[in-house]
Amino acid sequence: MPAGSPLVETLGAGVVKRSTRLDDGRELIYYDDPGTTLGPERAADARDLPARPETATMRRDVLTGDWVSIAAARQNRAFLPPAELDPLSPQTAANPSEIPSLYDVAVFENKSPSFGPALAVAHGAAPAGADAPADLADLDAPGLGRARTSVGRCEVVCFSPEHSGSFGTQTVTRARTVIEAWADRTAALSGLPGIEQVFPFENRGEAIGVTLPHPHGQIYAYPYITPRTTSLLASIDREGADLFARILEFERTSERVILQGEHWTAFVPFAARWPLEVHLVPHRHVADFAETTDAERDELAPLYLRLLRGVDALYDTPTPYIAAWHQAPVNRGRDTVRLHLQLTSPRRAADKLKFLAGSEAAMGAWIGDVPPESAAERLRAAVASIPEETP
């Protein structure tokens, strides 16, 4: 069992970071709210865990050039457990969960990741194979039957110790702590060997495929540049290096703006694919969360909460969504790819979902069900009904 006190560091906004290890060697990090009521001590992991699973293997789809991670260990992950067995709640005698102590925000390495360590870690974890990607040129090389070890990292970000909720149900102070954690983890993961892109996101709702109602998100650190970002880089090459600045100028003068502040603007994009789609973009160019200032993070916390609560105000029941924070690759496009949120939902009416069928799923040719201007009008009214909140 890992021994010793957690390593302690004070971050922006008074957030305190405490780093430790779980019994099988996985990293666990507590992020304490400013003014937290929690004490400084953290319990050790009381479990006797088996070795970590062998790191997954990814295979190259020769028709597209995409890499597909084959992670069989994910078949064993928890599926809608009862509250008393929530694996993201603090450990009790009856619940051997992933987090030993009561917490404000906690981040830990996923037990069954899609992307994992290249080498053996503590407590006999299985090492990856000898075929870790050499570099991006190696990944781009042609050939049938090519495979590499899925080297990278998958982390779980717990927004609260409560059993149910989402980012939008948190306080402004807690939202600010999570944003600080995103920035800290983006910097740390970007510095790991072989990492090419870092992606924080939140899946919300069973319609999206969520298997745990606990308020949480995830962070993936990929060994390649993702297909969506590869397409974005090609668009920047075609449209110009100032593409994001021009998009922001274009959208801020449109009827699709939802809300805006000194540092951020949220809008329904001109060519929205989904019935509900919102982009949230910083006014200043920043490549990722690690480059944002304290002032930008301070404004983002209440503004993002209002946006999410407005999304939920559209209907009588919570809306399923994917909140995807797109960041620049670690080593490419830092001066052109801007950090931004793309929030999407398949909900096209109170009791209807948009399913990706033939044209979208098979050919990638999208057909929009709702005019973006109509969606923006409804969402703008919903957000306006949400009172502004401060820490």
Automatic annotation (TrEMBL):
Its EC number is 2.7.7.12. Residues 143-225 form the Galactose-1-phosphate uridyl transferase N-terminal domain. The keyword Kinase does not apply. It catalyses: alpha-D-galactose 1-phosphate + UDP-alpha-D-glucose = alpha-D-glucose 1-phosphate + UDP-alpha-D-galactose. Keywords: Carbohydrate metabolism, Galactose metabolism, Metal-binding, Nucleotidyltransferase, Transferase, Zinc. It comes from the Bacteria. This is Galactose-1-phosphate uridylyltransferase.
